[in-house]
């Protein structure tokens, strides 16, 4: 019996001492890198931005003075006349354009804004200039970007952030140089559930008009 045990121990020791021929040790980081990536929001947004999104904003924009006046007068009618929404009960999205003098530039908050005086409106139009942008007005204004196209809410939210980032990137140089007293032309989107919501336009285009 003792000889059997000794024999087993010798065999076991030999097995443990053998090199792991044919086996490959993969580091955890390498394994994770080799796994397929999930949804790439930046790639998704870039794939439709220049060819579909920007032309849609340009072609669909309505005068901001007309749209805001309608919103403040009869919100549901304004939605039907000027807006888009993905379904009943969803916020209305409006694409607007306009021009006017910059009355104020607030960059003290990371949610920076421009106040622009537009002819025909008693109150200035508020333009979001970031770097923090509230809401997903850019995404929500695009009828070809639907929640149904995504696996889950997280992907849909990430797509919205990526689209907003491209919009912000496109106006960054103008935002940096614009000053109070300048005249600007702009195009952007706002998403509202009611007329009492914060009426702030998320910029898609901003140009400083030469004096």
Furnish the topology, listing elements before pairings.
Elements: H1 2-17, H2 28-34, H3 41-60, E1 62-63, H4 64-73, H5 75-82, E2 83-84, E3 92-106, E4 111-117, E5 125-131, H6 137-140, H7 153-177, E6 183-192, E7 200-209
Model description:
This is Putative lipoprotein. The protein has one domain: Envelope glycoprotein gp160, DUF2291, alpha/beta domain (OB fold (Dihydrolipoamide Acetyltransferase, E2P), Beta Barrel). A hairpin with a 4-residue loop joins strand 3 (92-106) and strand 4. It has a five-stranded mixed beta barrel with strand order 3-4-5-7-6. It has helices at residues 2-17, 28-34, 41-60, 64-73, 75-82, 137-140, 153-177; strands at 62-63, 83-84, 92-106, 111-117, 125-131, 183-192, 200-209. With 211 residues, it is of the alpha+beta class.
How many strand segments?
A: 7
Which stretches are poorly predicted, pLDDT < 50 over at least 5 residues? 1-26, 28-36
CATH class: Mainly Beta
Biggest pleated-sheet summary:
5 strands, mixed, barrel
CATH topology: OB fold (Dihydrolipoamide Acetyltransferase, E2P)
Number of domains: 1
SSE arrangement, N to C? HHHEHHEEEEHHEE
Pfam families: DUF2291 (PF10054)
Keywords: Lipoprotein
Protein name: Putative lipoprotein
InterPro entries: TM0957-like_sf (IPR036215), UCP033535_lipo (IPR014582)
Characteristic terms for this protein:
single chain; 211 residues; alpha+beta; OB fold (Dihydrolipoamide Acetyltransferase, E2P); five-stranded mixed barrel; 7 helices; disordered N terminus
């Amino acid at each position: 019996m003792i000889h059997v045990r000794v024999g087993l121990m010798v065999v076991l020791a030999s097995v443990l001492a053998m090199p792991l021929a044919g086996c490959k040790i993969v580091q955890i980081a390498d394994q994770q890198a080799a796994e397929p990536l999930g949804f790439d929001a930046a790639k998704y947004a870039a794939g439709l931005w220049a060819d579909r999104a920007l032309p849609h904003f340009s072609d669909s924009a309505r005068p901001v003075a007309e749209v805001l006046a309608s919103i403040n007068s009869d919100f549901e009618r304004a939605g039907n006349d000027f807006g888009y929404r993905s379904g009943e009960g969803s916020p209305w999205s409006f694409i607007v354009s306009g021009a006017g003098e910059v009355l104020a530039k607030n960059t003290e908050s990371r949610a920076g804004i421009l106040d622009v005086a537009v002819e025909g409106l008693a109150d200035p139009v508020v333009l979001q200039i970031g770097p923090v942008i509230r809401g997903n007005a850019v995404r929500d204004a695009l009828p070809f970007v639907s929640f149904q196209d995504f696996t889950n809410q997280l992907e849909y939210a990430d797509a919205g952030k990526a689209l907003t980032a491209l919009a912000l990137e496109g106006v960054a140089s103008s935002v940096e140089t614009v000053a109070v007293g300048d005249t600007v032309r702009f195009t952007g989107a706002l998403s509202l559930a009611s007329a009492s919501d914060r009426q702030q336009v998320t910029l898609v285009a901003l140009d400083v008009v030469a004096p």
